[in-house]
Amino acid sequence: MLQTTANRQLDILQRLDNLVQRYGKHSSTLIPMLQEIQNAYRYLPEDLLTHVATALDLSPATVYGVATFYAQFSLEPKGKYVIQVCDGTACHVRGSMPVYEAICKKVRLVDGKATTEDGMFTVETVSCVGACAAAPVVTINGEVYGKVTPDAIHVILDTLESRGDTADA
Ligand code: FES
Question: Is 51 inside a domain boundary?
Fold first, then answer.
C-alpha cells in the first residue's frame, strides 16, 4: 500500500528525532540525518533541512553547506531510477558519451534536463567509479553495468520498463 504524503512526513520526522536521541545533538549527527532524508525522498526537501538545523542547533547555512558539499546529496528531486554514466578517462575513451546520448534519447530527456517529466529517470555523468576494467560503465541505482554499448542500454532500460514500474510506486 502506498504511504500517504503526511504519513511519510511524520515517519521521516520520527526517524530524524530517533537519530538525535541515539547520537545526540551534535554536528556529527548531521550527515546521518541527511542520509536518512536522502534515502527516503531521493533528495533533501528544504523544509526538512530547516528541521535538521533546528534539531541540531545549527545554522541553516551550515546544513545547506554540508548538503551541497557531498555528491551523495541532492537538493533537487531525482527520478526513481538514477542512471550514472561514468565519464572518467577510461570510460570516455571507450565510448561513454555515445552511451550517455543513447540513454537521454531512450528516456526522452528534453531541454538539457537531468530528470524526465514523469519522474522515472535521472541521468547524470560522474567521474571514475572504480571499475575501469569494465569501461564504459553505467550504474543504475548503484547497480553496476560494465562494457555498456548504446544497443545494450536499450535492452537494460526495456527490462526496467517491462517490470511495469511507475514513478510513485
Ligand atoms: S573511468 Fe569509468 S570506471 Fe574508471
Answer: yes
- Alpha helix (H) residue ranges in 42-95: 46-56, 60-69, 89-93
| 136 upstream amide cis, omega within 30 of 0 | yes
Order across the sheet with 121-126: list the strands.
121-126, 81-86, 138-140, 143-145
Q: Which atom of ligand 1 is nearest to the CA of 129?
A: 3
* Closest protein CA for atom 1 of ligand 1: 88
Whether residue 104 is found in the same domain as residue 146: yes
| Pair 90, 155 in one domain | yes
Q: Which residues' Cβ are closer than 6 Å to ligand 1?
A: 86, 88-91, 128-132, 135, 137
Name the pLDDT band for 169 (thresholds 50, 70, 90). Answer: very low
48-89 pLDDT, tens digit each: 999 999 999 999 999 999 999 998 899 988 898 999 999 999
Could you tell me the pTM of the whole model? 0.73
